[in-house]
Amino acid sequence: MVDETRFKDAPEAIVKQKKQFSIVWVVPLVALLIGGWLAFKAISEKGPTITITFQTAEGLEAGKTKIKHKDVELGQVVSIELDDELSQVIVKAEMVKKAEKFVSENTRFWVVRARVAAGSISGLGTLFSGAYIGLDPGKPGKPATYFKGLEIPPVVTTELPGSHYLLRAASLGSLHIGDPVYFRRIEVGQMVSYKLDEDGQAVTIEVFVHDPHHQLVRKNTQFWNASGLDVAIDAEGIRIDTESFATLMVGGIAFDTPVDQEAGEPAAENDVFKLYKNRESISEKTYVRKNRWLLYFDSGARGLNSGAPVELQGIKIGQVLDVNLEFNVEKAAFRVPVLIETEPGRIRTIGKFPEGAEKQKAMDYLVEKGMRAQLKTGSLITGQLLVALDMHPEAPPAKINWEGSYPEVPTVPTAMEEMTTSLTQFLNKLEKLPIEQIGNDLRDTVSGAKRLINSAELQQSVIALDQTLNQAQMFVAALNTDIAPELKTAVSNLNSALIQAQKLVKSLNSDVAPQAGRTLKEFQAAARSIKVWAEYLERNPEALIRGKSK
């Protein structure tokens, strides 16, 4: 047993424990540092979280679908949900830090997938890699986090150089987004979008022309719808016009600057132009003043349609607006009311109306002078009709009926109707004639003439006449050979005697000369008469029998 008292006064020992760092803590510390660095990097590189709405989530997957621009990843879809009304899909995506400056109120998003549109195929690469969301930064704007995705990919993106223009048209026609824009049959742009005006009266179409072709668009440039095939039949034959084969299938727009005009100033971005329905309509003048008239036709109007031309002396001055059918209960008859629209500005007036006519409406004056409306065939090939306004002085007097919604202009039957009416009247008169009696009388007359010709008396008369003519010919021959020469000799001797008498008269006394002169003149006249008669008888000896012809 140890005696503890022995060590009572001994100094107490101090034990010091040596501190040592365990390597076990190195791994968690490194992991903590790495986690912190990763967290910092993630937070520092994390961009904004945005929300995009689509009509459908076809091809989209949370955690897989990327957001790209020019095939560079700028974000990723983190969740896909339906809204409370189940009408659209809400897609949430996280963008990278670098994409923060590209996301603004003008940014556009759309789903890139394989698409087959009119005239083009896009997104074939997504068949293997899967669909993704495309991004177009757009013009700089205010930051935004909520976007409405495009159901149709944009035709052009912001980075493409060129210019946008707005076209105004009465209707869209066969145009679609993505249709080409042509300049002298060279594709230089595309149709970007369209929208209906708030009042529904017109359509605004946006087109994009690539650089450097956008410099060809001037202030006086004209745009027209080049879709389909334009076929024209005129005096020069059949003309077919189209921009390209593609326009036959998908449509298109063309533009050009009139060659007879100087090139105007370059058009600015979003300048507004009129879109004509075709190239030919550009040359048509626009008239503000328009008058509407109502026509009634008793005959059928097959081949008369809305839009048919209204012509005056073969010149178009308007068009047909509406064609209907009307039944009159009191008269138990049908008629065709036709509403037309004319443009008085197409008619140039030379001179002044007669006195008093200026106080009368011009149409009243023309109707009073015989102007009427008539249906005529516009094309023998198609059978289409038109309304022709022309002067018919022989038409019965008529006046314009100004009562009612539209003034009523008098009409005349068609040429075929007039021909049919005349033929009917002729047949009615022909039926009234005693055809049988006339035939019998004609037969009796022919029989009597036949009996007269074959009678013995007529044959004897012909023989006697033939004998008389033979004797006359013998007499004329004798007269020509015997009498005529002697008569000519006598006339010659008489002329010689007259010449001698003239010489004798000149030698006579002045007292006898006047009397002799008169006598001589009478002899001269007689000699001329005998000479003329002898010459005529020489040429026409038969005159001794038949007399002088008149």
Short note summarizing the structure:
By secondary structure, the protein is of the alpha+beta class. It has nine helices and 25 strands.
Question: Would you write up a description of this structure?
Answer:
- This protein has 550 residues and is α+β, with helices and mostly antiparallel strands.
- The chain is built from 9 helices and 25 strands.
- The strands form 5 sheets. The chain has a 7-stranded mixed beta sheet. A 7-stranded mixed barrel has the order 10-13-12-11-17-14-18. Strands 19, 20, 21, 22, 23, 24 and 25 form a 7-stranded mixed beta sheet that branches.
- Strand 11 (180-183) and strand 12 form a beta hairpin.
Work out the oligomeric state of the chains in this entry: single chain
Q: From the alpha-carbon coordinates, what is the Rg to the nearest angstrom?
A: 56 Å
Strand order of the largest sheet: 5-8-2-3-4-1-9
Query: Helix/strand/pairing class, anyone?
Result: alpha+beta
Strands, count: 25
